[in-house]
Every structure is written in structure tokens, then in C-alpha cells.
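User: Teach me something about this protein's shape.
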Amino acid sequence: MPHDVELVRLRSWRSAAAGYSVFVFLVRDQLIDTGFPGARQTVARLIDERRPRGVVVTHQHEDHAGNVELVARRRIPVAMAPVTEAALRVGEPNVGFYRRACWGAMAPLRAAI
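Assistant: First, the predicted structure itself:
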């Protein structure tokens, strides 16, 4: 019997050097969060292999929503609170040093969801 929840750990050399990693979850055929920009290739591979039917973004921080643009451009349905979408469309230019160093810079969301 397959598991309903799968934990996927994401890290880059930068986040690992700082002792950080991020987890996204596959719940049945839904992806919960999109990880951070520095894990874009891993998230793209995960999407290609697992083909989630939808994505839920919990909030706008780059370690949770850093690849939402990638998901949106692949036309995977995305669910998030309106305030989260609004924040992602504006972007967060004044991210602290450790966040930028660990996770990478996240561009504002431009694609339609």
C-alpha cells in the first residue's frame, strides 16, 4: 500500500553549509510548498517525475514559495491565500543576508496561476 504523505528534503551547498534544509511534502498527488530558489533543479525534477495535480503554497517566504513561478509556468494549479499571492507578486527585495545566502533570491511572481 503506498504512503499518502512523502517528505522531500531540499538543500543546496549554501543551505547545507549553514546547517539548513527545507522540506516539501507530496500528499497523494498534491505538492505542499515549492521549496527555495536554490533548489529549483531538484524541484523541477520532482515535478517532472511525480507530476503533481496541484500545489498548495502555505506562505510567501522564499523557502516555501521560491519555485512557485516554475510551477505556474508549467500550468500546474496553485492554491494559496490571496494575501500570499499578492506578496509574491510584489516580491521581497529587502530579504536578510542569511535568507538570501541560504535560499537564493526569489523573483516576483509574474505567471498566471
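Now, about its shape. The longest strand covers residues 5-10. The CA atoms of residues 14 and 101 lie 7 Å apart. If you'd like, I can walk through any region in more detail.
User: That's plenty for now, thanks!
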